[in-house]
Design a protein that fits this description.
heterotrimer; A mainly alpha (about 280); B alpha/beta (about 250); C mainly alpha (about 290); A: mainly alpha; MetI-like fold; two-stranded antiparallel ribbon; 11 helices; about 0% strand; C: about 290 residues
């Protein structure tokens, strides 16, 4: 076959295949918005479910998810970033460090349901926290730690070594160099990674299944030791466990969850594009 | 003549590779000592030993002694040492901040809080690096927007701002055009009055133009050292002569 | 000067402590899984566990054979890989080598958004759109089958496969391509004769990581594959995966019972499988970097 023609056919094929991936994404968003938009009312967003979930709103689930996620972020973000600083800036390059780095990379791939088991064994049972916001949040934060550490390390690593040398050569101390030269330049990368992580844990179900989520709690959480409803778990329940569920409530719940997660992801992605264009080095 | 820096029987290694062998050398106060030699001759390694930047590498080791004003470097706290021995790198290395922030960065980190005082330091340092007139109206614009030569002089100003005693130049003009090079050299000669300067360079002519004494390094060893005129006009060692004449490089 | 030293050393100690704590916490996972899982194996033989056909955790006597669950995971994963690997790698080629720059950014962002959609949302959409479609198209009693699960999972593995393959393709040195193009090869010939082999280790890593993602997926699988704990005979049979078993049953177990420990043992198996997969992928990726 004529190589020019072969190329044309091949490229069109590649294009079509790429569409196969992208179109369903648009379709999912479109279907959920179309079917779910009618459910979105003040009542839906700000009241508790009624009639065995078949009416009313999803307010407790929204608050539950927000509280779990906020607690998780408060733990995982500072810890992850500090661990990344330690590994990237302070740790000596030796066998132990290599093993640690390798385990962190690999732990990022462990299934979320396994983290759920871990949270159940450690936080719920061993530390006797019970099924609670704090147990779920800690489970999610442990799950997200490897991801935060990895993305933060990449961001720190992308700051040129020469910047560090320039600062150190002025007699500026190591920590000041990290604080005033390395961190400001790594911050956009760390933040994008962090926001994407927050988006991810907001949508996770398996890790909170046996550590935090409750089928139905009519009131809002009073402390971090309460069980809560959570959006992703609520969506799972109403779409699989409850017969004769009004369609628009299920779609509406999916829509709220999707908007929450995609809003964060979109802002993280645009932030990254913005900083990449603005990058000075 | 006071010896500012004295190296005695200095050897150093990166892993197994020995990069400086049996070095004995003294640098006088207020002179420009030029160090010439082909690449991998250990001249930059020696320079980075003085402000202990080599020690950022895990596998760096050295023995022998290196003294500043008669005190062994190991006795001096790293930050103080680096403040006293400023460095200008081969490539201009402005930090990604404004011109003003670059120069003010050192003093600010060393704990000077008065804005007025830092303003003064910035102006004084930029003037000493012959950059002031070119940038005085745009101190707040990004240092990354300056030309290569201006960036390099900015780095000199940044080094001067922490008031060092010694300035270590590591091939400071390797990326610059002739006009910028002339300006950097001009600033260097001007600075000699106040500072002790070590200039590592690949450019033999540059050493002959600005340095008072010149040392020739080859494969980690110092072959010879002497008054610049003597080294260039009547080198004692055949290898020095060969290098200066451009037979190898 | 003195105060700077003190602040620095306090902060550095804090960083050190955090780093160590994070690392310890993470290594705790393995310890606790092992503790609960090994408790199970002291009472039930590993051989019966892995090769037993029947998972009847609440019968008397109970049976804890996970072969059907392993087969369920295997069916769904292989099915997903067969679809996702060629599609994902082709898309990666399109994005990195063919698409114009402006289109590339849009496509990459789109794929990243796909990665962000929660699996429970994908599971829900699969239930209401894909499952009925599969039932009608293939005329089977229920659309809740390994096949539907594979389709959905292929889709969910896409972001991993595409983005990591794309990195691998882009890291092929420009000089390779230049050499081929200067000899008169077309862009397409250069792509599959030069770039594909050069990027192969990275693409392999991408495939491994994609498969790791698929094996570990829980919610969407639980909602779509029908959850029948029997060894499937065809791709259109309902299956139950290891992940779905844990998720579906853990809520109802008595804490500390054999059933509870058995689920931890499944977790341990999953942990080991995914750890090995990631380890291999990481080895490939490191080879690419060199």
């Amino acid at each position: 076959m004529n190589p020019k023609l072969a190329q044309k056919i091949a490229f069109s094929l590649l294009f079509l295949v790429t569409l196969i991936i992208i179109l369903p994404v648009l379709m999912i968003v479109f279907v959920i918005v179309k079917e779910g938009a009618s459910a979105i009312t003040w009542e839906f967003l700000f009241t508790a479910p009624k009639d065995g979930m078949r009416a009313g709103g999803i307010f407790p689930a929204i608050i539950g998810t927000l509280s779990i996620v906020l607690c998780a972020v408060a733990v995982t973000l500072p810890m992850g970033v500090m661990a990344a600083i330690y590994l990237n800036e302070y740790a000596k390059e030796n066998l132990l460090t290599r093993i640690i780095k390798l385990s962190i990379v690999n732990l990022a791939g462990v299934p979320s349901v396994v983290y759920g088991l871990f949270g159940l064994a450690v936080f719920v049972m061993f530390l006797k926290m019970g099924v609670s916001i704090i147990a779920g949040a800690l489970t999610l934060s442990i799950m997200e730690l490897p991801v935060i550490i990895t993305t933060s390390r990449n961001a720190l690593n992308s700051v040129p070594q020469s910047f560090r040398e320039a600062s150190l050569s002025l007699g500026v101390s190591k920590w000041q160099t990290i604080r005033h030269v390395v961190l400001p330049n790594a911050l956009p990368g760390i933040m994008t990674g962090a926001i994407l992580s927050i988006a991810r844990i907001s949508g996770e179900t398996a890790p909170i299944l046996f550590t935090a989520a409750a089928f139905y709690v009519p009131h809002l959480p009073r402390s971090i030791f309460d069980q809560v409803m959570a959006l992703p778990y609520h969506l799972y329940i109403i779409s699989t466990q409850i017969p004769n569920m009004p369609k628009n409530i299920t779609y509406g719940t999916a829509l709220v969850l999707l908007v929450l997660v995609l809003a964060m992801s979109v802002s993280a992605i645009s932030m990254r594009i913005y900083f990449r264009k603005k990058k000075k080095w | 003549m006071v010896d500012k820096i004295i190296a005695k029987d200095l050897n150093c290694w990166f892993g197994k590779a020995c990069s400086v062998k049996g070095l004995n050398l003294s640098v006088h106060s207020n002179e420009i000592l030029g160090i010439i030699g082909p690449s991998n001759s250990g001249k930059t390694t020696f320079l980075r030993m003085i402000n202990r930047l080599n020690e950022l590498s895990n596998n760096f080791k050295y023995d022998g002694s290196l003294m500043l004003d008669g005190v062994d470097l190991k006795q001096i706290d790293t930050e103080t040492l680096r403040k006293r021995c400023g460095m200008v790198f081969a490539l201009p290395l402005p930090l990604p901040m404004s011109i003003y922030e670059n120069v003010g960065y050192g003093p600010l980190r060393h704990g000077i809080k008065s804005k007025k005082y830092i303003d003064e330091i910035v102006e004084k340092s930029l003037k000493a690096a012959s950059l002031w007139d070119e940038v005085k109206d745009r101190l707040d614009s990004s240092a990354m927007k300056l030309s290569g030569g201006q960036q390099q002089r900015l780095c000199i100003a940044r080094t001067l701002a922490v008031e060092p005693e010694v300035i270590l130049y590591d091939e400071p003009c390797s990326g610059l055009d002739p006009i910028s090079t002339a300006k950097v050299e001009e600033a260097m000669v001007e600075l000699k009055k106040k500072y002790t300067i070590i200039l590592v360079t690949n450019n033999v002519k540059q050493a002959s133009r600005v340095s008072d004494r010149t040392a020739f390094f080859l494969m980690g060893e110092m072959v010879e050292i002497g008054k610049t005129a003597d080294i260039f006009l009547s080198p004692k060692d055949k290898r020095t002569e060969g290098y200066i004449m451009g037979r190898y490089g | 000067m003195f105060s700077r030293k003190v602040t620095d050393s306090i902060i550095e100690k804090l960083i050190f402590a955090s780093g160590i704590a994070a690392i310890l916490l993470v290594s705790l996972i393995f310890f606790f899984l092992l503790r609960e899982g090994l408790g199970f194996f002291s009472e039930y033989s590993i051989k019966d566990f892995i090769t037993g056909h029947f998972w009847y955790p609440t019968s008397k006597p109970a049976a804890f054979g996970i072969l059907s669950l392993i087969m369920g995971s295997l069916f769904v994963t292989l099915g997903a890989a067969v679809i996702a690997v060629p599609v994902g790698v082709m898309a990666a080629f399109y994005i990195s080598e063919v698409a114009p720059v402006s289109v590339r950014d849009v496509l990459k962002s789109g794929i990243e958004l796909l990665a962000a959609i929660p699996s429970v949302v994908i599971g829900f959409i699969g239930m209401v759109t894909l499952v009925p479609l599969v039932r009608v198209m293939f005329d089977i009693p229920t659309g809740l089958s390994a096949f539907s699960g594979s389709l959905m999972l292929a889709f969910m593995a896409m972001p991993t496969i595409v983005s990591i393959s794309e990195d691998a393709i882009r890291s092929v040195p420009w000089t390779y391509k230049e050499a081929a193009l200067s000899l008169g090869a077309t862009k397409w010939q250069t792509m599959y004769r030069i770039v594909l082999p050069a990027a192969a280790p990275g693409i392999l890593a991408a495939v491994m990581l994609g498969i790791g993602r698929v094996i570990g997926e829980t919610m969407a699988v639980m909602m779509i594959t029908g959850n029948a704990a029997a060894i499937p005979e065809s791709i259109f049979d309902p299956v139950r995966t290891m992940t779905a078993t844990i998720a579906a049953e853990m809520g109802e177990t008595v804490k500390g019972s054999m059933h509870y420990k058995g689920l931890f043992a499944i977790g341990l198996v999953l942990f080991v499988i995914t750890f090995i997969i990631n380890f291999i992928a990481d080895t490939f990726l490191n080879r690419v970097k060199k």
